[in-house]
Design brief:
Chain A: This is Amino acid/amide ABC transporter substrate-binding protein (HAAT family). Chain A: Keywords: Amino-acid transport, Signal, Transport. Chain A: Belongs to the leucine-binding protein family. The structure holds 3 protein chains of 3 kinds. By secondary structure, chain A is of the alpha/beta class. In chain A, strands 6, 7, 8, 9, 10, 11, 14 and 15 form an 8-stranded mixed beta sheet that branches. In chain A, helix 2 packs across helix 11, helix 2 crosses helix 12 and helix 9 runs parallel beside helix 10. The longest helix of chain A has 30 residues. Chain A is globular, with a radius of gyration of 25 Å. The N and C termini of chain A lie far apart (104 Å). Chain B is mainly alpha-helical. Chain B has a two-stranded antiparallel ribbon with strand order 1-2. In chain B, a hairpin with a 2-residue loop joins strand 1 and strand 2. In chain B, helix 1 runs antiparallel to helix 10, helix 5 crosses helix 6 and helix 9 packs parallel to helix 11. The relative contact order of chain B is 0.21. By secondary structure, chain C is mostly helical. Chain C has a single domain, classed as ABC transporter involved in vitamin B12 uptake, BtuC (Orthogonal Bundle), CATH 1.10.3470. Helix content of chain C is 74%, strand content 3%. A two-stranded antiparallel sheet of chain C has the order 1-4. In chain C, helix 2 runs antiparallel to helix 9 and helix 3 crosses helix 4. The longest helix of chain C is centred in the middle third of the chain and has 25 residues. The two termini of chain C are 30 Å apart. In chain C, 60% of the residues are buried. Classes of the chains: A alpha/beta, B mainly alpha, C mainly alpha. Chains in contact: A-B, A-C, B-C.
Chain lengths: 421, 290, 315
């Protein structure tokens, strides 16, 4: 009997030792950082936005750690340069997940990069937030993919929606449209969106020839457009092209009631300062701007921090385009981790689907396909830009929000010629 | 559907652009056509020249055209150095075709990355005021950013042509291209002549770079767009003939613009390169071949 | 012939050992990174059949790779064919295009062939971009099945196929070296005019080389859409493929099959490692500098430095 007791005691002692060991292990774990892994273009054609996004994410990590981290653990970013080449993406994500053992992942910048990462996220049942991807999940229908671009379930239509919302206000109604887009996925979706919008409004498309992505001189193409004398000109271009098309429009003296719409890259300071006054009159989509109604808790703090660091980091100095989104992207992921007290993909995914998140770019709620439940895009017009100085493009004095109506900070100047002077 | 105004403007703009292409291709015509050195890094040197002009513009407020005067001698020296390496490593070994090509391919890549490391991938552009003005003659518009590179390229080609046909060294270089042994028998050093000619080709690339900065914003990898075009022009122009180069370049510019009008811009590259493929297959000595 | 089968046997054993080792490591990263390296082994060896043995430089590697990829995509849209069939079809199409290009331009000096391949890449990219059936400019999704029998995950299956292709390419390369075909190739490389004069059927030999080289590149391209999930013309025609496929044989050495294999394994692995360590533009800088360094200082590549080039004939 005594013997038995002693055995039990010994067992009990063992149990306590094991428990103590386990506790010690947990407290060691507490110091362990939560690692968030992603690929981001630091070289190649996407690097401009990629670098801006990376700086924003680093600022988020600093802010989060200053608040005590996540679940009491510090956060750490683990990232590699995908060189803007999707072929580098699958090895990077498997390295992150299988070798670096990151706890959470995030996406790199733009559609092809996100597409290459998605199947790997699916294989590991991880949540993937896609930064500025167009319809990445339409074919895959992955329940843990969330798009950080306010384009909604049908991005093709939304790409041109703000443009047409404003065009609908014109009197008399415009009846003809010309489209200028390159032969790439982005251009294709602008074209598709424009066709749908035109059909819904009974407008006629008078020019829709695409151009090769390597093209740099657009004077002839813009003249062809001018020859069709359209009411509206939808331009859906990529960064380098946007600059060259804008210049050709200025040189040829193209006139229409509205010109622009989806000119990516015109949001960057470097494009704006190359064009200077030649940018006047163009309308363009915006996802976010520091307009009074779009200043949410943290927005301006973030911009101040970003702008203070941007120069030293050699990235876009103003940072209205991709940076706040990269920050908000991680805010949502962090809120889900705090909300579920978990790092499991299934729980996080369900939580993100079920909740609305307060971020520096506003309230975010996702629909069933992982896109924004309600699209929210704006149209701005460049007005009264006098010089090539970067200050012209800070704030909303010369970047005037012209739509949707309830968000307006100014009126559309139309026709285009009037804004040109 | 296609109006006269549109057609006239397309042709004029094609001529202006083509004229600029001729400036870019002039150096390649010398190195490839006369010296048999397939410098596929030639467009990369052009982009380097553009960045050189950009830096001079930013630091000292120099206009790209003035900056070109400083870029040219530096590029001439660089050309001498590159040829020294090329000659020692490939020409002398008689092993120049494949490895030489790979050498320039590597050079192009390294050049691109160096520019990325120094300047990032953002677009850079001249701040010269004339870059955003146009002259109008009747219905035809002549934007200065196209007209100036067109005229600049004409100057480049004319200067190179005068040098080759009127000076002693120039004629000797043409002689080397024909028959190196004969030149050696005449007491001249063919290697030195080739080195000078190659350095000139690089100097021309530098000058064309300054013109490129006037024409459009540049980024480090933009040279890739020119590789095919430059060699197409050099081949079409008859390998080593500068007037032929100019005519071929202008033709290419006009063809690209007309394709854009009649079939859509997305077919323009295929048409001009298809044209090159056909020429290579049917008349490899070029349209204006010797 | 028995020497050939002995070599093939050894190559198969080496491949099996490699595959087993990759499985033993037990994580997907090895497979994803390994796939890229193996793809480059195939591309480098294929490039070398024409570039190294015959001395004709092909800058259009990406075009042949993309042909294979898009042939697969086109087939997949017509009927759900298995990946190996796509690879074969991609090989046939790319081989035929190689033959056509060769037929048009191989009667010219080598340098014109190189320029023609550059032009070919542009023309093909334009055609593909305008061909909506395979996605065109909008791109196309290729969703890989979650599971495949025997291999478990699809990436392992893709690695297995690429490894098989690598064995085939290496075996064919070696067979060329040891046969009369290889002798003819070397004769062309050393002095084409003399070869022609002594009765070597130069055009026919060169056409065989372009067709073979193009076909292997096309076969290597067929699985690409599944690797990337989303294929755009700009990713299929990426210049990086050309740079690497030229740099690898030149760094390894072009006179025998071992050179491109060594170059691809070393440079390909180094790139994968650098991507996740230094991770910046420096990655590309290293490729360029190595390429320049080797062609200038070590014209016979690594196998020359290691003293492995027993049979080199040219000066």
């Amino acid at each position: 009997m005594r013997q038995k007791v002693s055995v039990l005691r010994r067992l009990g002692g063992c149990a306590i030792a094991v428990l103590a060991g386990a506790l010690a292990a947990t407290s060691a774990l507490a110091a362990d950082p939560i690692k968030i892994g992603f690929s981001m273009a630091q070289s190649g054609p996407l690097a401009g936005s990629g670098k801006s996004a990376l700086l924003a994410m680093k600022i988020w990590a600093e802010d989060q750690n200053a608040k005590g981290g996540l679940l009491g653990r510090p956060v750490e970013l683990v990232y590699y340069d995908d060189q803007s080449n999707p072929a580098n993406v699958p090895p990077i994500y498997t390295k992150l997940l299988d070798v670096d053992k990151v706890d959470l992942i995030n996406s790199g910048y733009a559609t092809p990069i996100i597409a290459a990462a998605l199947p790997i996220a699916m294989q590991h049942d991880m949540v993937l937030m896609g930064l500025f991807g167009l319809a990445n999940n339409a074919k895959l229908n992955y329940d843990k993919y969330f798009s950080m671009a306010p384009t909604g379930e049908d991005p093709a239509k939304v790409a041109t929606k703000p443009f047409f919302d404003v065009a609908d206000q014109l009197v008399p109604k415009p009846s003809t449209i010309a489209v200028i887009t390159p032969d790439i996925q982005f251009g294709h979706s602008v074209l598709e969106g424009t066709r749908a919008a035109a059909e819904a409004r009974g407008m006629k498309i008078v020019y829709d020839r695409t151009f090769p992505p390597s093209m740099t001189d657009f004077s002839t193409l813009v003249r062809e457009v001018q020859a069709t004398n359209p009411d509206l000109v939808v331009v859906g271009t990529q960064p380098g092209q946007s600059i060259n098309v804008a210049r050709a429009i200025a040189e040829v003296g193209l006139n229409a009631r509205m010109i622009g719409g989806s000119m990516t890259g015109l949001q960057t300071t470097d494009a704006e300062t190359i064009l200077g006054p030649q940018i006047n009159g163009l309308v363009n989509f915006a996802y976010w701007l520091p307009a009074p109604k779009l200043q949410f808790p943290g927005s301006m703090d973030f911009l101040a921090k970003y702008q203070a660091k941007a120069k030293a980091a050699g990235v876009d100095p103003i940072g209205y385009y991709v940076a706040p989104w990269a920050y908000a992207d991680l805010q949502i992921l962090a809120a889900a981790v705090e909300g579920t007290k978990s790092l499991e993909g299934d729980k996080l995914g369900a939580f993100i689907h079920a909740n609305t998140f307060k971020t520096i770019i506003g309230d975010v709620q996702f629909g069933p396909g992982g896109e924004w439940a309600k699209p929210r895009t704006f149209l701005i017009q460049f007005q009264n830009v006098k010089s090539k100085d970067a200050n012209e493009f800070t704030g909303t004095d010369h970047l005037v929000l012209v739509g949707p109506p309830d968000m307006k900070t100014g009126d559309l100047i139309t026709p285009f010629d009037k804004a040109r002077q | 559907m296609v109006s006269f105004d549109l057609l006239a403007n397309a042709v004029v703009s094609g001529v202006l652009l083509g004229g600029f292409y001729a400036g870019v291709a002039a150096g390649a015509t010398i190195s490839f056509g006369l010296l048999d050195i397939a410098n596929i890094a030639h467009p990369a040197f052009v982009v380097f020249g553009a960045y050189g002009a950009f830096v001079l513009g930013q630091r000292f407020g120099l206009d790209p055209l003035v900056a070109a005067l400083f870029v040219v001698p530096v590029f001439y020296l660089a050309g001498l150095a590159v040829h020294q390496v090329y000659h020692r490593a490939f020409e002398r070994r008689g092993d120049d075709s494949m490895r030489g090509l790979a050498f320039f391919f590597g050079l192009m890549f390294v050049g691109e990355v160096v520019l990325i490391l120094l300047f990032g991938v953002d677009y850079r552009y001249t701040s010269a005021a004339y870059a955003s003005t146009s002259i109008k003659i009747g219905p035809v518009a002549l934007p200065l950013r196209q007209l100036i590179p067109f005229l600049g390229a004409l100057v480049i080609l004319a200067a190179a042509q005068l040098f080759l046909s009127r000076t002693f060294i120039g004629r000797a270089i043409l002689g080397v291209a024909q028959d190196a042994t004969a030149i050696r028998l005449m007491g001249a050093d063919p290697v030195r002549l080739k080195r000078i000619a190659f350095a000139i080709s690089i100097a021309l690339a530098g000058a064309a770079g300054a013109l490129l900065l006037v024409l459009e914003p540049v980024e480090p990898a933009i040279g890739r767009e020119f590789i095919g075009r430059v060699f197409a022009i050099a081949v079409l122009g008859g390998m080593g003939s500068l007037p032929g180069t100019w005519i071929a370049a202008v033709m290419l510019g006009v063809i690209e613009n007309l394709t854009s009008i009649f079939a859509g811009a997305s077919w323009a590259p295929a048409v001009s390169f298809g044209f090159l493929l056909l020429t290579l297959a049917v008349r490899p000595s070029g349209l204006f071949g010797r | 012939m028995s020497a050939f089968f002995r070599f093939l046997g050894l190559a198969i054993i080496a491949a099996c050992a490699l595959f087993a080792a990759m499985r033993a490591v037990g994580n997907d990263y090895v497979f994803y990174a390994g796939y890229t390296v193996l793809e480059y082994v195939v591309l480098a060896c294929a490039w070398n059949i024409l570039g190294g043995y015959v001395g004709y430089v092909n800058f259009g590697v990406a075009a042949f790779l993309a042909l294979g990829a898009y042939t697969g995509v086109a087939l997949g849209r017509i009927a759900p064919v298995p990946l190996p069939v796509m690879m074969l079809a991609g090989g046939v199409v790319a081989g035929l295009v190689g033959l056509g290009t060769g037929y048009l331009t191989l009667r010219l000096r080598g340098i014109f062939f190189a320029i023609a391949t550059l032009a070919l890449a542009v023309v093909l990219q334009t055609l593909i971009t305008n061909w909506d059936f395979v996605g065109g400019s909008a791109g196309v999704y290729a969703i890989r099945p979650k599971h495949v029998p025997i291999f478990g995950s699809y990436i392992q299956y893709m690695v297995f196929l690429m490894l098989t292709l690598a064995v085939v390419v290496v075996a064919v390369s070696r067979a060329i070296e040891t046969s009369g075909l290889g002798l003819g190739f070397v004769a062309i490389r050393d002095d084409e005019v003399a070869a022609e004069a002594t009765g070597v059927p130069t055009l026919r030999l060169k056409l065989i080389a372009t067709a073979l080289s193009g076909a292997f590149m096309g076969m290597a391209g067929a699985p690409l859409p599944y690797y990337l999930t989303f294929l755009e013309p700009s990713s299929a025609f990426n210049l990086t493929y050309a740079v690497n496929s030229i740099a690898m044989p030149l760094i390894g050495g072009t006179t025998m099959w071992f050179g491109p294999v060594l170059g691809a394994l070393l440079l390909g692995t180094a790139q994968q490692v650098i991507t996740v360590t230094i991770s910046s533009e420096v990655n590309l800088l290293i490729v360029g500098l190595l390429l320049i360094g080797f062609v200038v200082l070590a014209p016979q590549g690594l196998i020359g430095l290691l003293g492995l080039t027993g049979k080199r004939r040219s000066a």
